[in-house]
């Protein structure tokens, strides 16, 4: 009956309840329990999204939005109670690119590769996360506050997201920030406005949309802030066993705006991501424990002179800190690292090449906390007899160096149930130990949601009040976060 009603609303080509289609959404690489949806809907317009949400609200049917393709990792798109999967991947138009204002308007189905190719033709680029999977939605990444690898252009955790068009759980359409009016989007753009100002007349609705895992509304387009494509780039590597010293170098590079892309990986992640056809285990053993990557850039005017001056300043800082700078490490050039890190991942996704399974544990912390929290994780892994050779670590300065995103990747054999359970046990025990040591889990997924929100009753109650306003029937992704 439900499928028939959806077909009546949208047409048979947009609706499916075939077993194979439902199985694609029943599970992912997380520890979320397996559960099939009842049907899958693939809208292609704002009106269709609104129709589906209104129907779900009237029928009290759970609705789970998803925009990225498989493989998925976080459990946020695995239905908790069945219901309808609202697959937004068919809405994949790039609606507008403006070189002068450095902004693009995109739909949820747009992938990083698609957008970067279009931006490159206009002399622009989008700050993007570290080597995202090829099926990752740009809008989905921004809504989840995934950090990008250019802290120089990372002014706020919401960046590079600007304005959104969203359909709330009531079926009402809302446009955030400058996009709210006056005038329609077409009238605004005809007048020269480009929906760049994220803050609206009153509250910034983006703050409740980001990190909500689709529990407040469904976004149908977003604008994102882009940056000028550099004329010349010169990448470098610094490696060693002393993490605090490398973090000091990264701190000064970010503080003095020397370089665009900057991040730190441990030898496990570095070998997996940049090893290519090499023997990954051997490369991992050969590499130093920590590798810092950074890239100097020269823009449109005087690019050579700009890089030359930046390189002098960088060399002086590195010398004062006692950190040697190189253009390659263990046969892997900085150019190769730049090329791979700033593009979508090849297939299979690089995190699945080890054993086919990966569980990420991301959080944010201060500069001073990061090394100690890394040690907390290593101690937890050792206590659970989890091989440190299977523990990937990624450290990303955010908000122009005012904080750090730290992400642990627990690699395991996907088909080995014993090792999967061992990984799950470490995932939970390490999260608890990290939380008690000061890690802030701003994006708690699947099993961590209860652990996080049970520690903060005030935030939980405030979120539930907002949920009652924007999704009073609790149809949007119920069972996630604290709903």
UniProtKB/TrEMBL annotation:
Entry keywords, A to Z: FAD, Flavoprotein, Oxidoreductase
Xref: Gene3D superfamilies: 3.30.465.10, Uridine Diphospho-n-acetylenolpyruvylglucosamine Reductase, domain 2 (3.30.43.10), Vanillyl-alcohol Oxidase, Chain A, domain 4 (1.10.45.10)
One Pfam family of this chain: FAD-oxidase_C
Cofactor(s) needed for function: FAD
InterPro entries on file: FAD-bd_oxidored_4_C, FAD-bd_PCMH, FAD-bd_PCMH-like_sf, FAD-bd_PCMH_sub1, FAD-bd_PCMH_sub2, FAD-linked_Oxase-like_C, Oxid_FAD_bind_N, Vanillyl_alc_oxidase_C-sub2
GO function terms (MF aspect): FAD binding; oxidoreductase activity
Superkingdom, taxonomy of origin: Bacteria
Organism taxonomic ancestry: Bacteria, Pseudomonadati, Candidatus Hydrogenedentota, Candidatus Abyssobacteria
FAD-binding PCMH-type domain ranges (all copies): 31-229
Name of this chain's protein: FAD-binding oxidoreductase
